[in-house]
Write a structure and sequence with these properties.
By secondary structure, this protein is an alpha+beta fold. It has 2 domains: about 220 residues, Endonuclease III, domain 1; about 120 residues, Nucleoside Triphosphate Pyrophosphohydrolase (Alpha-Beta Complex). The chain contains 13 helices and 7 strands. Strands 2, 3, 4 and 7 form a 4-stranded antiparallel beta sheet that branches. It has a 3-stranded mixed beta sheet with strand order 1-6-5, covered by helices on one side. Helix 1 packs across helix 11 and helix 9 packs across helix 11. It is globular, with a radius of gyration of 24 Å. The chain binds a DNA duplex (11 and 11 nucleotides) through helix 2, helix 3, helix 6, helix 8 and helix 9.
Amino acid sequence: MDASAQTISAALLDWYDAHARVLPWRSAPGAPPPDPYRVWLSEVMLQQTTVAAVGPYFDKFTRAWPTVEALAAADEGEVMAAWAGLGYYARARNLIACARAVAARGGTFPDTEAALRELPGLGAYTAAAVAAIAFDRPATVVDANVERVVARLNAIEEPLPAARKAIRARAEALTPPRRAGDFAQAMMDLGATVCTPRGPRCLLCPLTQWCAGRRAGAERFPVKPPKKAKPQRRGRAFWVERGGQVWLVRRAGRGMLGGMLALPDDGWSARGDGSAAPPLDGPWHPLGTVRHGFTHFDLDLQLMLYSGSDLARFAPNDGEWWDIARLDQAGLPTLFAKAAGLMLALRDETGESG
DNA sequence: TAACCGTGGAC
DNA sequence: TGTCCAAGGTT
């Protein structure tokens, strides 16, 4: 660590001591680290997800499953339902797998970056973050905040993702041998509250005197590649009702919304050409369309009502009947929660009680 | 490497 | 309404 890097990291830690955000999964600057379980759980939830969105989920999970052993012993469907609405459901599947792997080794998380990296759902970022924050290891944590701060600090003109190698090298040079966890959280707090993507508050920044990017216009760093257009897809979901219950299915364990409880559908997730769904044979009637944006495509999902009498075709082997009165507890991902909301709104309009 | 994988808030 | 994008991981 050269003298300049040491000066910069010391200035950032001083800033963190005074301005650290208070968060449920975090201990105060300089204080002993939190429970590794809580660090790991929060880091997985925070992957590509805002602090505000994570808050209620972190509370719910730690209340329901206070330890990694409790989570490992939990019913998978309950965990997936508890995750519903948070998105990127592979995280929840990996969360269960990781909890069980940790429980199998006695309930103790590995305390090195390399060993953490072997666990399901822990990539370079999360392994380094848990190692640094929970175990005070001098690991270099590089997330989107760190990328932005470092790219600006060094006025890196090379666009992402090619710039990541240089960014990581600079971040490693800045990482202090002590308080690496606080340093990582300081970088992320700085990126979230001062060195923001738009409208950075350079006048409030503790690193401004060392920032090459500020002189060149900090906001334009990091340089990013042009975005690709999002395709439009269309599909149908099906509302099948019987005596105040609706037919739900468990989606396959991989791919879109994998492992989640859902309304049955026509496989829109596998049809990528944007074509309209073919006509349906039988007693099906359109109720309306839900528009939903995913990361890499937009979806128009038409909700179809089944008015036939052949309910035997919906066998418990393939799904389950769920009480409509407690549908909000089913743990449907947002797409299907929207579709269900459309149906329930129509029901209210027509004055039916169910 | 690049595609895939959710969602909601900010502007 | 549209656009951007957040404490990324897996394949």
